Amino acid sequence: MSDDHVYMTLAEGHEDDTRWAYGTGFEDPLHGVDTTVPDGVDAGELAALCVTLADDALVSAQRLAEWTTRAPELEEEVALANIGLDLLGQARLLYSRAGQVDGTGRGEDAYAYFRDTGEFRNVRLAELPGGDFAFSVVRLLVLSSWRLAHFERLVAHRDPVLAAIAAKGVKELTYHRQYAAEWAVRLGDGTEESHRRTRRALEQVAPYLGELFTAYDVRDEVVAVLRQVTEAAGLPMPVYRPLPGSGRAGEHTGHLAPLLAELQGVARAHPEATW
């Protein structure tokens, strides 16, 4: 299967030019959206959901930022940076919504910079070190496929703010998934060395798939994407045996604390600083 064929089939159903979506844009996705929590929606549960989705995005964005000046080509450096910015934009909107509905009035900085490691609720796959380019590509493929499938459901959420954030995110995540899929096929079907590294990346990601499938009921969609891409790349499907513990419960690998220390260092050292 060619790269173009993988793109066409994965992008099916999204009429926008998602290939170049780097979707922050200039339009406010929440313009005119009623911020009142609808009757029947539990504010605590809504806030918790927004925080978990924001934590996934923030930690993923921080890992992608590590490729700045390190990507194999300038074009890929720009692409990865823009994908990270998309995720950072999603995190900001989600943290802001959590602060609106959880009764604390906290802003996005409070969630991002002034919580400790055990308070974060991101999935553990997002926090693993970047590794080589193949690992980052495979991780991005898995996380973007998983997040896209969930956001497609959230577009119909009863909270209009979360639904609007999800609608914006769907356009961005469609591109993220496609970018990763094309690179996974290119690497898997490339040289002997790139094939070996991509196969190893799938093996490294596999133990963390169980946590993703537990979090939301999107397993079928994610597995279908992985099967399509691995077949096109001549790679085996990852066989997952879930690891104990869950990032959703605040149980993290030893890699999150140093990542957060780097992310939060300046804000904590100068908490009242402005610019």
Q: What string gives the helices and strands in order? A: HHHHHHHHHH
Shape: globular
What's the CATH topology label?
A: Ferritin
Please, how many helices?
A: 10
First CA to last CA: what distance? 51 Å
Largest sheet: none
Instruction: Say how many strands there are.
Output: 0
How confident is the prediction overall: mean pLDDT? 89
- CATH architecture tag: Up-down Bundle
Domains counted in the coordinates: how many?
1
Give the name of the CATH superfamily: Ferritin, core subunit, four-helix bundle
Strand content: under 5%
Main CATH class = Mainly Alpha
Q: How large, in whole angstroms, is the Cα Rg?
A: 18 Å
- Helix content, binned percent: 55-70%
What structural class do helix, strand and pairing data support?
mainly alpha
Low-confidence stretches: 15-24
Protein name: Phenylacetic acid degradation protein PaaC
Organism: Streptomyces azureus
GO cellular component, one term: cytosol
Q: How do you describe this structure in short?
A:
The chain is mostly helical. It is built from ten helices and no strands.
SSE order and pairing:
Elements: H1 3-10, H2 43-65, H3 74-101, H4 108-113, H5 133-154, H6 160-188, H7 192-205, H8 209-215, H9 219-233, H10 256-269
Helix pairs in contact: 1-6, 2-3, 3-6, 5-6, 5-7, 5-9, 6-9
GO biological process, one term: phenylacetate catabolic process
Pfam family, one: PaaA_PaaC
Protein name: Phenylacetic acid degradation protein PaaC
What does this molecule look like?
- The structure is a single chain.
- The chain has one domain (40-242, 253-269): Up-down Bundle (Ferritin).
- The chain has helices at residues 3-10, 43-65, 74-101, 108-113, 133-154, 160-188, 192-205, 209-215, 219-233, 256-269.
- Helix 5 crosses helix 7.
- The longest helix is centred in the middle third of the chain and has 29 residues, at 160-188.
- With 275 residues, it is mostly helical.
- The chain has ten helices and no strands.
